[in-house]
Amino acid sequence: MGIDQAAGFQVFVGICLFVLGLCIGSFLNVCIYRIPLKQSVISPPSHCPNCNTRLTAADMIPVVSYILLRGRCRYCKAGIPVRYPLVELLTGMVYLILYIRYGFSVETLALLYLFSILLAVLFIDLDHMIIPNGLVLLGMAGGALTTVYNLFVPFSLYQPSKWYTPLIGMVSASGILFAVALIGLLIYGNDGAMGMGDVKLFIPIGMFLGWKLALLSLFLAVMLGGITSIFLLISRIVKRKSAIPFGPFIVAGTFIATLFGNSIISWYFAQI
Ligand SMILES: [Zn+2]
C-alpha cells in the first residue's frame, strides 16, 4: 500500500469505529437504564417510556434521530433526555480516540470492550450509586482473554509484559482500595464512604491494563475525585454529607492512564 492508501485506510477505519461507537452508545443507553432495574437489555424492544409506543429503526438512529425529532418523542412529544445523544457521541469519541492511540490492533479491540463496559458503569454509578456485579464479571471475562493472549503475544499495554502482569493487576489497585474500604469500615462503620463496587471494578481494569497502569488509574481517580469534590463543596453544589459516586472518576482516571500512562510512568521515573 502507498502512503495515500494507508492514510485512506486509517481514516476509513476511524470513521467506521466512530459510527460503531455511536451504535454501541445507543445500546449502552438501554443498559444504563435497564440493568439497575434488573430488566433484560434485549427484550422487550425499545419503546418510549412515556407513551409506550414501540420505536422504529428510524426513531433509533444514534444522534441523528434526536436532532431530526428535535429531542421529542415522535408520537407523544415527550422530551427525550439530551443525555441519550451525548452518551452516543461520547462512546463514538472514546472509540475513535482509542483507535488513534493504539491503531489497528488487538489492544484497541480489547480496550473498546473494556471502555464500553466502563461507560455503562460511569452512568449507572452516577444515577444509582451502584456498580452492577454483572458488568464487573463481563469485564473479567474479557480480562481473562487478554491474560491468555498475553501468554502468546506480548500485550503492549503491559510494560514490561510478563505472564503474571495482569494477575498482579487484578489484585494491586483493588487490593489497596479494599484495604482503604476496610479501614473506613472500622473507623466510620457502615457510613465508610468507599463502596465495594469500586473495589471490584479495579479487578477487570487491572487485568486489561496490568498492575502499573491500574495503580496509576487509581491515583488519577483519587486526584480527579478529590479536586472535583473540593470544587463541588466550595461552590455549594453538593452538601458536606452527600456522597459523590467514585465510579465516574475511576473511568476517567483509567482512560487517561490508558492513553498516556506508560509515558507518564517513564517520565516520572526519569525525574528521580
Ligand atoms: Zn412517546
> What is the overall number of helices?
8
Number of strands: 0
Amount of helix: 55-70%
Summing up helix and strand content along with how strands pair, one would put the structural category as: mainly alpha
Instruction: Tell me the β content.
Output: under 5%
Largest sheet: none
SSE order: HHHHHHHH
**Spatial extent as radius of gyration:** 20 Å
Main location: membrane
Family: Belongs to the peptidase A24 family.
Transmembrane segments: 12-33, 102-124, 130-152, 164-188, 208-234, 246-270
Subcellular location: Cell inner membrane; Cell membrane
Description:
- The protein has 2 domains: 11-104, no CATH class; 105-272, no CATH class.
- 69% of the residues lie in helices and 0% in strands.
- It is built from 8 helices and no strands.
- Bound molecules: zinc ion.
- One of its GO terms (cellular component) is plasma membrane.
- Belongs to the peptidase A24 family.
- The chain crosses the membrane at residues 12-33, 102-124, 130-152, 164-188, 208-234, 246-270.
Short description:
This protein has eight helices and no strands. The chain is globular. It is mostly helical and 272 residues long.
